[in-house]
Write a structure and sequence with these properties.
- Residues 1-23, 63-107 are annotated as: Disordered.
- This is DnaJ domain-containing protein.
- Residues 81-102 have a biased composition (Low complexity).
- Residues 149-258 form the NERD domain.
- Residues 9-70 form the J domain.
- By secondary structure, the protein is an alpha/beta fold.
- The chain has two domains: 10-68, Helix Hairpins (Orthogonal Bundle), CATH 1.10.287; 90-307, no CATH class.
- It is 41% helix and 15% strand.
- It is built from eleven helices and nine strands.
- It has helices at 10-14, 22-36, 44-57, 60-68, 90-94, 109-123, 135-140, 143-163, 224-239, 278-284, 294-307, and strands at residues 102-105, 170-175, 184-190, 193-199, 206-209, 212-215, 245-250, 259-261, 269-274.
- The strands form two sheets. The chain has a seven-stranded mixed sheet, sandwiched between helices. The chain has a two-stranded antiparallel sheet with strand order 5-6.
- Helix 6 runs antiparallel to helix 8 (143-163).
- The chain is globular and about 70 Å long.
- It starts with 9 loop residues before the first helix and ends in a 6-residue tail after the last helix.
């Protein structure tokens, strides 16, 4: 079971309220075990999820620990426009000591703002929210709202990894994609090429089917790969730059192996990877791909720096 805000909580898996008594939890657990057991036609994944849910909230100690676990309200790796990671943060001080990548924009800022807007609408106008990241509030919110927070955390994690690549890399975050309504989470330029990156977390494993990603938490009409390609194409038209590849970064528990949608015509390849593979991809590039010259990277960086606009501009 994923720890993502977008994932089903143990209470949702067992089908009970967070205020359920210990006896109600026990009865729900036994019922869900019977319904999901593979011997009676249940799915093994659902059966395992029920057992993991019980491990997390089945006794008073583990339940209390889970209930007070808080989602962070400020990631220490956050990067602001024209700056490196916050110098006083624990993550920045404990990270690589050498020169860091040039970072511009505010990773996760747009998603966090959307999370707070939707949360206020859901709670009700005029209601004071003392802590918008309190665990009980987050877990009780609708999945759409929780997904906004999960996506913000995913973008911040990606930005932190990119920042450690070194001075040879430049990254822009929350980039306006020309006329497209959705921004591009990250644009990263380095010796291996120019990459557009989508950082996502749907709180569930994903599969690639007919060139599109699917997951239990995605609606049938959702087309994340298609929308990502459209946004990258709009930025390509606006700036006159060509991406080496489009990269979808997911939590490691969302997929076991990288997935790829081959490029079609002028469209670049779309690669779907677990987060632990991101640094290697940005350093080494795609198999068989020629690395760019220093002069080419320098010229392209100047063009991007002059042309990129941010969501907050």
């Amino acid at each position: 079971m994923s720890e993502s805000p977008a994932a089903a909580s143990p209470y949702e898996v067992l089908g009970v309220s967070p205020e359920a008594t210990s006896e109600e939890l026990r009865r729900a657990y036994r019922k869900r075990l019977r319904l999901t057991h593979p011997d009676v036609g249940g799915r093994a994944a659902d059966f395992q999820a029920v057992q993991v849910a019980w491990e997390r909230i089945g006794n008073p100690e583990s339940r209390a620990d889970y209930d007070r676990r808080r989602y962070p309200d400020n990631d220490p790796g956050t990067v602001h426009a024209g700056s490196a990671s916050s110098p006083g943060s624990p993550r920045a001080s404990s990270a690589a000591t050498g020169p860091r990548a040039r970072m511009y924009g505010h990773p996760g800022g747009h998603a966090r703002q959307r999370y707070l807007e939707l949360l206020r609408e859901w709670v009700g106008r005029g209601t004071v929210i003392e802590d918008p990241y309190a665990p009980q509030l987050v877990r009780s919110a609708p999945r759409e709202i929780r997904h906004c927070l999960a996506r913000a955390l995913a973008q911040e994690s990606t930005a932190h990894l990119v920042s450690l690549l070194g001075i040879g890399y430049t990254a822009w975050h929350d980039v306006l994609a020309g006329s497209h309504p959705d921004p591009i989470d990250h644009v990263v330029l380095g010796p291996a090429g120019l990459f557009a990156i989508l950082s996502e977390d749907w709180g569930a494993p994903v599969e690639l089917r007919r060139g599109e990603l699917i997951a239990e938490t995605l609606r049938p009409e959702d087309r994340p790969v298609h929308e990502f390609e459209d946004a990258a194409r709009a930025l390509h038209r606006a700036l006159g730059v060509r991406f080496t590849a489009l990269v979808v970064v997911l939590p490691d528990d969302a997929l076991s192996e990288p997935l790829a949608v081959p490029g079609r015509g002028r469209r670049p390849t779309v690669v779907v990877i677990p987060r632990s593979r991101l640094v290697g991809l940005l350093r080494e590039g795609l198999p068989g791909m020629d690395r760019g010259s220093f002069e080419k990277v320098f010229d392209l960086r100047s063009r991007l720096q002059d042309g990129i606009r941010f969501v907050t501009d």
